[in-house]
Each structure stands twice: as structure tokens, then as C-alpha cells.
Amino acid sequence: MAATSVPLGTTRRPAIKPGRILIYALLILFLLLFLLPVYMVIITSFKSFQEVDLSRMWQLPVSLNFESFARAWEVLAPNFANSLLLVVPATAISAIIGSLNGYVLAKWRFPGANILFPLMLFGMFIPYQAILIPLVQFLNSVCLVPNADGTCSTSLYGNIFGLILVHVVYGIPITTLIFRNYYTEVPDEMLEAGAIDGSGFWGLYWYIVLPISLPGFVVVIIWQFTQIWNEFLFGVTIAGSSAQPITAALQNLSGSQIVEWNVQMAGAFLTALPTLLVYILLGRFFIRGLLAGSIKG
Amino acid sequence: MSKAGRITAFFVLLPSIVLLAIFVYGLIWGTLTTSLTDLERVAALRGLPGQFIGAENYERLVNSGLERRFRIDMVNTVFFTLSFIAACLASGLGLAVLIDQKIQFEGVFRTIFLFPMALSFVVTGVVWRWLFQQNSGLNVLPTAIGLPAGNFSWHLSQDKLFTFNWADVPNILVMVVCGLVIYFALNAYMKKKSQRAAFLAAVAFLLLMLVTFNVPNQAAPLRSEEHGFNVALFSITIAAAWQMSGYTMAMYLAGLRGISDDLREAARVDGATELGVYRHIVLPLLQPITLSAMIILGHISLKIFDLVYTIGGENPLQIDMPGLYMYFVTFRSGDYGRGAAIATIMLIMVAIVIVPYLATSLRKERN
């Protein structure tokens, strides 16, 4: 912007240039816009029900009131537990599957892989509505606990196991993609050296590939954790009421008759907390997973 | 690598292939066939098939007076997708360029612009619905700097822009295709492929003639019905862009960091202004990223469900989307056949965007 005022060929820059001030002003303006909803969540959730009032919406609470967090937790706690029970196994299983698939696709190229891989990837872009109806029918037809008279007392439909299965299966494309891109960076020479020593498929994986996979696992685990925790469509359609994850419960909370905004904001905060913590603690890996989702590794 | 290892490798991948073959392609086939029936929930959950009724579900969605809601959804999807992509690209690129100016506290800015990506659309929806309260929220913000308060009713607004008649949609579609053909013709002309340019120009002319004589509208007669860009969609756009523009920024930033400083310095030495460096060096190099971002954002907006559900609730016609309607038709009304038809149309829209993208980006990778 003001660069033309600097003689060409010099790198010396004046201490304060109007262009720099403009850059920071714009950045701070954007910063405020991005944090606006955060401010609103925090101030509203610390208000009492009586204090939540449209005319005082932007004002700080008169005192810190934890009542809304207690109320929100009371409603959401079982669903918070459901989400944890769902996310932990689903994430672990999809990370293991992704790692093995990625290893195969990156290091054991076989004929047809070039056609197979995009066909696998397509699965991560489809609108899940397009598989939902037969999926419900399928889950409903798989009986876990039959009754004595031949009817079914517990099927995969409306059950946490069904939800775990669904998230693992639809997580295969993205976890495979991330690991494939990660392992492609590993030089083939490393594996060839191992192969000369007589290691086979599993030996190479166990002694050479797996020990250097930690960053890949971190990216995949963060990605799957965030995706599954935040997921909503499967949560409201195939989980049933007993296995309902927290996102579905939060939506129910907001659909209740008397809108208690303070409780809703506290609920939103509780729902967001686990993924936010992951993001703050491991943000670097989070971004890597994000960009992997746009295919170019 | 050993042959035995290769066989083991195949068998390790096999379960995933089988699962995806069943759960992606098999179930899509199931949806397709269900969409040609009148299957209802009660029968479906007993494992009974529906009656085959051909394309009737689709015909109803496109033309029946009872299915106006679906047509509103399609129009909403198009306008929302366009405004959402535009908002994300503009703010994403702007933020990336600002952050790329060797600023202090870069990490802090990046972290804050990107954090909404870690949230669920449901959380975003709950929070923004509160901000969209007509008598407070965002509307009173201007008063902080002495301006009068706004009076926009956000997601509840009933106003429409760019109104058009549903019966004109065939003409409009042909016009859009015509515009694309003209774009490719100009592209070919620029690259001095005059034969191809001439051919494309002829095609464009033909399409234009068809529209002039109203051929598309007559070939596919649709009911007369007013539609338009519901301004209520701005609310969804703002909330969705708040969540996704940090992602767009991250994509652009990765691209900017890939452009060497030497290249920019060389341009500066040649006398380019800072703005000129961006216009002639940086932006052209970012074009592939813009395309990727458009596709990623586009496929998100085409299948959006949770955000709209949370902001709008049960009957938000002015911000309704096919994803939401599919849910209500299927799981509230129990009309599986019609729900499957809506889902199939959603899949086709997403596939149109994604399939060419997958094909080209993997071909590029192989070369």
C-alpha cells in the first residue's frame, strides 16, 4: 500500500505506516465480530431467568449466577454421557481402520486402486439424507435382543451401537484419506529396507509405519471426535430417545415452550466445551485435518 | 514388496470396501428405488415394500400445488448457496490477506477466526437465534455508535428479492447454461482455439434462440407460482459464514504461504504496487483454491439441515431447505417414498458439484 514511498531495493520500513494501522483496525474489527456471539453466550448464561430481558440483552449480568448452568446440566448430562459413549469408541475404531486403509493405499498399490479410492471418497461428500431411509430400515432389521415370541426387543435402531456403527462406516473415507496422504510422505526406501529384512505386510506396519504414525492419529482423532460430537442428523433420526446425543438434546432444549435463553446459552456452552477444548489445546492438528478434508494433502 | 504382502493388503482393505459398497452405494440404490414407491413408515418398519408408482413422487414435487414448500426449498437452496459461498470467499480471502501481512499476534487472530469451525451447527444456530431477536440483538448494535436501531426481522422476514415465476424456470436454466457456454467460448477464444470458440458460440446462439422463442418453457410446462430470494436467508448466511469463513481463510492462507516471497519481491522490483502484486501475481495463483473452497462450501450448503432446523424450528418456510423438508416428510409424516425422492434430488445436486471435483483433483494428483 504505502510501499511505493520506500525507495526500491531497501527493506527498511518506517515504524508506523497508515497502511499498517488500517490492517490492524480491520483485523480488530473482524475479531470483535467473531467474538460477538461468544460474548453473548457468556453474559446470557450467567444471568438469572428474571434478568434475561431483551432491553438489557447486551448488558453484563449484575452478578455471576450459575443457576442456568445447573439447569442445563440437569437436562443435558445423560446426553453428554451418550455423546461420550458414542464418540470414544467410534473415533478409536475409525482411526485404526483409517490407518490400515491408508497404509494399504499409500504403500501397497494394487490394480484398480485408482478407481476404488475416488469411489470410497465419494462417501464423505454425499448428503446423508440420501442413505437415511434404507439405513433406518436396515438398522431396524438387525435384532440384538430377540423376544421369546420371535419379535425384537432391541434392534440397532434407536441404540448407541447402531450410532457407533454408522459413524465408523461413514468415517472410513475421511480417515483413509488423511492417513493415505500422511503415509504417502513416508519414503518408500524406509519400507523397502524393512522388506529386505524379511518383514511382511504386518511386520512393516508394526515396526516401521505405526511408530511414526502419531501425528496422523492425532489429526484423525481430533477430526473424528469433532465431527461425531457435532453431528446432528443421525442423532435425531436413528439414535432414539435413550441414546440421543447432546446436539439433539440441545435442539430439544431450545424447542421447549417457555424459552429460557439463559439455560439455552449455558446448554450451548456445555455442548461446545469438549470440542472447543480440543481445538484450543491441539489447534495445529485441527487445522491440518480441516485442510485434509479439501483433498489436497 | 512381496506378493504375499500384496494379498494381505487387499484383504485388509476389503472389509472397508464391502462396508462402503453396502452403506454408500447399496443404500443409495435403496433410496432410489424407494423414491419410486409410495412406501410409508408403518409398512417399512415391518419390512414390507411399497407400491411401485414410477416418477409420481418427483412429478408431485416439481409441479403439484401441495408441494409448493419443496419448490421454495429448491429456490432457497440456490440463493443460500450463492450468498453463502460469496460471503465465505470474500471474508476468507480478506482475512487471509490481512493475516499474511506479517502482523503481530498472528496466531491469536488465526485461532479466533477459526474457532467457530470447532462448534456444532446446532450450537451456532442456538446462539444466533438469540442474536436475531427483532427487538434487540444485532438490531440494536448500531445504537452503540449513535446510529438508529435496525428493524430487520432476520429469519422471520417475509420479504423477497428477485421474484420470478416458477413457470419460467426452464427458460432460466437454459439461460444459465447459455451463460456458461459463452464463458467457455470466451476462454477458448483467449487461448486462440478459434475452432472450438466458434462451435461454442454457435451453441450459445442456438440456446439464446430457444429462449427467445420460449421453447424451454413450452417443452416443460410448470405451474405458475411466484418465487424469489427470501431475504430471511441472510440470517442463515450470516450464521453459516460466521462458522465457515475461518475455514476458507485457512485454505487461502495455506495457498498464500505456498507463494514464494521471491516471486512477490521480483514483481515489486519491477515496479508493481502492493495492490498490483495481489492483482497480477497472488490472486491468479489462488484460483485453484477458490475453486476447491467453492466446492467444499457448496456441498455443505446444498445439504444443510441442522443450522436451519435450530434457527427456524418447525415451520420456517422462508428459510426452509430440502434437507429439512426431507426430515419432516420422512420422520414426521412417515412418507418414505416422497422423502426418498427429496433425498435423491439432494444427492444429484451434490453429485453435480462433487463428482467432477473428485475426478479432476485425483487425476491431477496422479500426474
Question: How would you describe this structure to a colleague?
Answer:
The complex is a heterodimer of chains A (297) and B (367). Chain A has helices at residues 18-45, 67-107, 113-122, 129-141, 160-184, 188-196, 201-209, 214-230, 233-237, 246-254, 261-292, and strands spanning 143-146, 152-155. Chain A is an all-alpha fold and 297 residues long. In chain A, helix 10 (246-254) packs antiparallel against helix 11 (261-292). Chain A is flat. In chain A, 67% of the residues lie in helices and 3% in strands. Chain B is an all-alpha fold and 367 residues long. Chain B folds into 2 domains: 1-26, no CATH class; 35-159 and 231-366, MetI-like fold (Orthogonal Bundle), CATH 1.10.3720.10. In chain B, strands 1-2 form a two-stranded antiparallel sheet. In chain B, helix 10 (233-257) crosses helix 12. Chain B is globular and about 75 Å long. Chain B starts with a helix and ends with a helix. The model of chain B has no long low-confidence stretch (mean pLDDT 90). Classes of the chains: A mainly alpha (297), B mainly alpha (367). Chains A and B meet through helix 1, helix 2, helix 3, helix 4 and helix 5 of A and helix 1, helix 4, helix 5, helix 6 and helix 10 of B.
